[in-house]
Amino acid sequence: MSTRAVIDISELPHHEFDTYDPVWWGNNLLLAIETSMFAILIGTYFYLRQNFALWPPPVAELTATLKPLPQLLYGTLNTILLVLSCIPMVLTDISARRGDRFMSQVGLVTAVVCGVIALVLRGFEFSAVYFRWDSNAYGSVVWFLLGMHMMHLAILTTEAALLCVWIFTREYDMKHRVDIVTVAIYWYWVVAIWLLIYGIVYFTPRLG
User: Fold this and answer.
1) Is the separation of the CB atoms in 162 and 107 below 8 Å?
2) Which one-letter DSSP state was computed for residue 70?
3) pLDDT tens for residues 176-191?
4) Mean pLDDT of the chain
5) 3, 26, 56, 185: most buried, per Cβ within 10 A?
6) What is the pLDDT of residue 27?
């Protein structure tokens, strides 16, 4: 029979917010990896930029101008929408921590609607840059930047929608309250990354 002392953890909670929960660490380490991926893409964008006298580089299909700049309308609308979407997500974050089920429901529904609209606007953004993904190096890297961010936005919106369905139909337990806070952190990251991409894609060509 062993006499080694053990620690009694039976009274510890199964879930807790922020650094006390493994989900928080997993989510933030994932975001660190994804941030590195976007950093590589942005580095590729500027590496390609130095190889061209004109940026965006001219293509034969666009004869109206030698330097067709991406349209600002859809990208700017999407930026405004994503920034504003942080308001319901902050509300959702706070309400989940407080255990307020109704406000969590309101915040998640609003965030999901914003996410769907942002995805639709992103579809228009692809045509607003004037280039196809296979037009040249510029078209490839811009489409990849927009597409990778769109993928994260789609995953985030789907995750928020699933949590929304859960808290409308199932128990509003501590585990899913922690999940809601984790989604909120992911949402802030997606918006922050987009602000950086928006500035690079839409304004650096105008500065060159």
Assistant:
1) no
2) P
3) 788 889 999 999 999 9
4) 86
5) 56
6) 78
Q: How many angstroms separate the CA atoms of 120 and 157, rounded?
A: 12
Indicate the CATH number for domain 71-207.
Answer: 1.20.120.80
Nearest to 153 by CA among 72, 76, 81: 81
Would you state the pLDDT for residue 11?
Answer: 59
Q: What's the CA gap between 91 and 111, in Å, rounded? A: 10
Please state the domain extents for the chain: 71-207
* Amino acid 143: pLDDT: 94
- ∠173-151-111 over CA atoms, to 5°? 45
Burial zone of 43 (CB within 10 Å; 0-12 exposed, 13-18 middle, 19+ buried):
exposed
Confidence of residue 9 (pLDDT cuts 50, 70, 90): low
Task: Pick the closest to residue 165 from 152, 180, 150, 153 (CA basis).
Answer: 180
Q: What 3-state DSSP class applies to 65? A: coil
Residues 6 or more apart in contact with residue 198 via CB below 8 angstroms: 75, 76, 78, 79
DSSP 8-state code for residue 19: G
Instruction: Please return the burial class of 63, using the count of CB atoms within 10 Å of its CB with bins 0-12, 13-18 and 19+.
Output: exposed
What is the pLDDT, as a whole number, of residue 65?
55
Q: What is the rounded CA–CA span in Å between residue 180 and residue 186? A: 10
Contacts of 100 (CB under 8 A, 6+ apart): none
